[in-house]
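User: Could you go from structure to sequence for me? I need the amino acid at each position, not a summary. Structure tokens:
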């Protein structure tokens, strides 16, 4: 991690040995894939500052994670090919920015990752009925996956449902052929039956909650070590280490959280670990935010630029920061 040390020296802070060991263990135990980690860095660090960066600066940002310049170049090329990024060149230099579609994807992920859990629910369900005779098996599987991303569980082969919230838009997949003319969407409340099977009783199976709970507990076990090291380091935190911890935190958190339908508390088991995971992510993010932003600014300055101010949504992450 020579790059991290050189930048921290420039920032005038000394690395913390305990935090350094934690970062090394996490990278060794679960080496992040380059394209996925770049998406995390872009969404967490770059998007709130305009979402645009020189390739050379991005290469420097990724070096502390063991991702070399060749892997960064290849990954950025793939992200551009997939519609996330757009490039422009000045001489031999390349600069990348978010496309409109890339910005939309990040905005959706931002809402899910950083917003406090919404525990309110009035007992109403949003239901999608997709008859099996109007689409191929592949199309139905694509619909199921798209609805799962939007928080729907599968209660039967043709029945998908999620707790209804007034501000939740309908999934865009429902406007595409063949679903736009064949799928039925409704809002409904259950009628209590003495011997009937309530949807709430099938929640754990519809959303694989036991598996999700195990993932949350793994996240808590891993990042509790970072929280303890940060608390022990006091106020003299190394910017490069804080950037690494904050990035690894969001990378690990989003991989678990984006599989979470974020059900209201009334539908979750007692002592749901997702609540503790959110609190832990909030604490680690708060402890690393200021120093991590300093590291980002110093790295961007290596190309003779000033880091643009963060947008208002950045200050509202995890309930808000001073």
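Assistant: Here is the amino acid at each position, in order:
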């Amino acid at each position: 991690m020579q790059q991290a040390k050189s930048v921290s020296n420039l920032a005038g802070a000394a690395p913390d040995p305990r935090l350094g060991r934690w970062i090394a263990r996490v990278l060794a135990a679960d080496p992040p894939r380059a394209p996925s980690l770049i998406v995390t860095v872009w969404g967490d660090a770059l998007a709130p500052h305009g979402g645009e960066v020189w390739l050379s600066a991005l290469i420097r940002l990724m070096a502390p994670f063991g991702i070399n310049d060749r892997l960064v170049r290849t990954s950025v090329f793939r992200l551009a090919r997939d519609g996330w990024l757009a490039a422009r060149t000045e001489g031999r230099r390349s600069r990348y920015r978010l496309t409109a579609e890339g910005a939309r994807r990040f905005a959706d992920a931002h809402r899910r990752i950083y917003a406090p859990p919404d525990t309110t629910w009035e007992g109403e369900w949003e239901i999608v009925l997709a008859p099996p005779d109007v689409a191929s098996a592949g199309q139905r599987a694509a619909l199921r996956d798209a609805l799962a991303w939007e928080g729907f569980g599968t209660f039967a082969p043709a029945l998908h449902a999620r707790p209804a919230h007034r501000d939740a838009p309908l999934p865009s997949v429902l406007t595409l052929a063949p679903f736009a003319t064949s799928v039925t969407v409704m809002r409904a409340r259950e009628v209590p039956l003495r011997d009937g099977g309530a949807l709430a009783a099938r929640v754990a199976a519809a959303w694989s909650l036991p598996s999700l709970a195990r993932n949350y507990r793994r996240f808590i076990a891993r990042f509790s070590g970072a929280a303890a090291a940060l608390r022990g380091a006091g106020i003299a935190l190394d910017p490069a280490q804080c950037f690494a911890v904050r990035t690894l935190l969001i990378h690990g958190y989003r991989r678990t959280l984006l599989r979470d339908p974020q059900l209201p508390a009334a539908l979750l088991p007692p002592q749901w670990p997702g609540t503790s995971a959110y609190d832990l992510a909030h604490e680690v993010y708060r402890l690393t935010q200021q120093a991590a932003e300093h590291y980002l600014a110093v790295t961007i300055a290596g190309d003779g630029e000033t880091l643009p101010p963060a947008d208002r949504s950045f200050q509202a992450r995890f309930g808000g920061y001073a």
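One structural detail worth keeping in mind: The mean pLDDT is 88.
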